Amino acid sequence: MEKKAKALLQAFCGVLLCSCAGAAPLADSDTLHTDGPALRNARNERIVLSGVNIASLEWMPKGERIRESFAAAIEDWGAKLIRLPVRSGFWFGRDSKQPLPDDFSEKSPLAEKEAVRAEAYRTLVDSLLEYANARGCYVILDLHEFKAPTAAHLAFWRDAATRDANCPRVL
Question: Considering only CA atoms, which of 56, 32, 60 is closest in space to residue 45?
Fold first, then answer.
């Protein structure tokens, strides 16, 4: 049973990400590591993260009251962990549900449309991660897609890991 718990915790920690662009530096005590089935800080104190799932970015590129939900979870409920489901189609701007800015021509090449859509989605995700990070809250990016991993899933994780590579809260 202990091996299974350790494997699950390591899998969980493998996707724990937060953005660091523009965020204040974290204290050493905020950097977490695994010790068997436990999470521990730099002082080796056992850490328990309690939090919430804030859905909507996996089905709607602008989310549904997503900023308000982050504020309520962190400020009102004291969440120290937020699971944020996301979608690779939105991350790469490949979903026709994603709106284009009003001043952007529908006649533009597809690659330009995808780049603009992708940047809008990633900017929103970044702003949520920065908001959480500045308030001491960890975020799990959850690529909320089903079936066996695909090349699109790998591309997402590579891009997200590169984007958040300097974050001290990546486990």
Answer: 32
